[in-house]
Specification:
Number of strands: 9
Distance between the termini: 51 Å
Mean pLDDT: 96
Order of helices and strands: HEHEEHHEHEHHEHEHEHEHHHHHH
Number of helices: 16
Radius of gyration: 20 Å
Structural class: alpha/beta
Helix content: 40-55%
Oligomer: single chain
Length: about 325
């Protein structure tokens, strides 16, 4: 039985937290899970680094039982490396393996990995098939519409990937050339979903920044589930907001005290894994989101950006009037 289809059948309006490098580590995933994220995935793991036994890559695969359903996402450009990496990941006993065929970052694309594969669909299919055949776990794929606005083969590519055995596909509604600019094109995601030959779950991703948008996108384009990415950075409450929208109950933005408490919990959990200095540096990317809409926060943020000590961050935050 299809793992994803079975889960979605029993969990309406499922929300995925998108894998994001240096964002979706265990502390952040834990918070998102508590606020309504249903299915979590690791930060993406380099297949080449994994088979070289790079410890950082193994650290990325670590997860807690409370995070299930949980997937490990791998990326790479070489079929043999991807197969070996998938087999290593499988030993960690996640619920599924996800292949990243969508990352637009230059250093990834330059190696032929991520969304670079969209220029060579036959290789994309061959590499994916090799992984599917090499592991017993369900395999899913995350990708984009195509390489650029003149080359968007996602409808055909999705069908081919389904035919070689993947159990779900997540589609970000942009091309690689767009990176994250412009507006996500959900009409092509809809075409994948409405293809009469498609039977596996299709998960939509891109520009879901509110509960209202989530409901509109899911109903209008008919996808089986939604994946939330950048909108969750510094705003893990978006999962709660979306769940409230689907359930048609009122949603109230968190008050400042709750924002501070969640951020500090996020920071302290990160210290346990990354050490104080790294945790304080990595939390910086979340400040703008955590305190969006708070008046006069700019000055506070400037102070926060200067320190790498947890006690100083606590002092600065506790001095905010609320």
């Amino acid at each position: 039985m299809n793992f994803f289809a079975n889960y979605l059948k029993n969990h309406p309006n499922t929300l995925f937290l998108a894998p994001m490098e240096e964002v979706t580590d265990a502390p952040f995933r834990k918070i998102c899970k508590s606020l309504g994220a249903d299915i979590l995935t690791s930060e993406f793991v380099s297949s080449e680094a994994l088979i070289r036994d790079v410890q950082k890559s193994f650290d990325k695969m670590a997860f807690d039982e409370t995070e299930r359903p949980f997937g490990i996402q791998i990326f790479g450009y070489d079929e043999n490396s991807l197969v070996k990496a998938a087999q290593v990941a499988e030993k960690q006993q996640p619920d599924f393996i996800d292949i990243n065929w969508g990352c637009p970052v230059k250093k990834v694309v330059a190696k032929g990995a991520g969304s670079a594969i969209l220029k060579d669909i036959p290789k994309m299919v061959a590499c994916t098939k090799a992984v599917v055949n090499a592991v017993k776990l369900p395999v899913s794929v995350k990708t984009r519409l195509g390489w650029d606005m003149n080359d968007k083969p996602i409808v055909s590519a999705a069908e081919q990937l389904q035919d070689i055995g993947i159990q779900a596909i997540t589609i970000h509604g942009r091309t690689r050339s767009q990176i994250y600019s412009g507006v996500a094109d959900w009409t092509l995601i809809e075409k994948v979903k409405s293809n009469p030959r498609m039977t596996i779950p299709v998960i939509g991703n891109g520009d879901i920044s509110s509960g209202e948008k989530a409901v509109i996108f899911k109903n209008r384009y008919g996808v089986d589930a939604l994946m939330i990415g950048r909108a969750a950075i510094g705003n893990p409450w978006i999962f709660k907001e979306i769940k409230c929208a689907f359930e048609k109950v009122d949603y109230y933005s968190p008050v400042l005290e709750e924002r501070i408490n969640i951020l500090l919990q996020h920071l302290k959990d990160s210290v346990q894994i990354n050490g104080e200095k790294k945790a304080c540096l990595e939390i910086r990317k979340h400040y703008a989101g955590y305190f969006k809409g708070i008046s006069n926060f700019k000055k506070v943020r400037l102070e926060l950006m200067k320190t790498t000590a947890v006690v100083e961050i606590e002092d600065i935050l506790r001095q905010i009037d609320y």
